[in-house]
Amino acid sequence: MTYPVDDLFDLSQTTHGALFEGVQYPWDALKRLAGYLAQNLKPGSAGAEVHPAAHVGHQVFIGAGTIVEPGAMIIGPAIIGAGCRIRHGAYIRENVLVGDGCVVGNSVELKHCVLFNQCQVPHFNYVGDSILGHKAHLGAGSILSNVKLDNQNVWINFDGTPIDTGLRKFGGLIGDKAEIGCNAVLNPGSIIGRDSIVYPNVSWRGILPRNMIAKHVDPPTVVVRRPRSH
Q1: pLDDT tens for residues 75-103?
Q2: What distance in Å separates the CA atoms of residue 159 and residue 163, rounded to the nearest whole number?
């Protein structure tokens, strides 16, 4: 059984397509990430605008035209593409690939993850051990949870067959142009298909197929507002 990478991701929208060559499942690319960075990272920031009040580690490459605002912290190893905006308060940790034209915003934490080109992670997001596709977008406060409460490996139910990913830490795969609403939580091992939408405040687990919407079905309770006695 395999899960073709191109079901989720357009590999022409990353300069790191080699990371995915020959993988059985897309999440297997995460197992290669540290080694890929060790082999391909050439530190530098020529043509980038890095504010003196930003912290950039020694094992970081930043592409031309990328702006790193004051207060951002990039630990590395990390490769950040061209024309990105790394905003104040962004925290980019170990083993991160950021594509071209991406936004990494205020109070966003990235760790051991891959962002394809033009991905937007703009406000109060955590992305750990995950892959986000071309033009994927996270709403403010949405979180990719990457560890199960029992600390066991993450399993995925694929076409009725449970599959051990071999990963104790695995957040999710978000396909090209998928939209994750504000304050949504994707539980470990979530897979969101291309062009799909997860509505705000949804707690999602499992596989959402392409071009689908996940939303709450229960309406809010409405009651009459009554005056309070003083």
Answers
A1: 999 999 999 999 999 999 999 999 999 99
A2: 10
Helix (H, G, I), strand (E, B) or coil at 94: coil
Residue located via tokens 């309070």: 228
Catalytic residue among 123, 134, 216, 230: 123
Alpha carbon distance 177, 74 (integer Å): 26
DSSP conformation class of 60: E
**Residue 48, in any domain of the structure:** yes
* Tokens coding 103: 């936004």
From the centroid of its chain, how far is CA 127?
A: 5
| pLDDT reported for residue 1 | 66
How many domains are contained in the chain?
Answer: 1
- CATH number for the domain including 78? 2.160.10.10
Would 225 be classed as within a structural domain? no
- 123 as an active site residue: the answer is yes
CB 195 within 8 A of CB 212: no
Amino acid at 9: F
- Predicted local confidence at residue 230, as pLDDT: 59
Q: Which residue has the tokens 């790394």?
A: 86
Calpha distance 188→184 (Å, rounded): 13
Q: How confident is the model at residue 216 (pLDDT cuts 50, 70, 90)?
A: confident
User: What are the residues facing 157 on neighbouring strands?
Assistant: 162
Rounded Cα distance between 62 and 45, Å, is 5
Confirm whether 226 is domain-assigned.
no
Q: Which two tokens stand for residue 127?
A: 């992305």
Q: Which domain holds residue 178?
A: 5-214
Instruction: With respect to residue 99, please indicate whether it lies within any of the assigned structural domains.
Output: yes
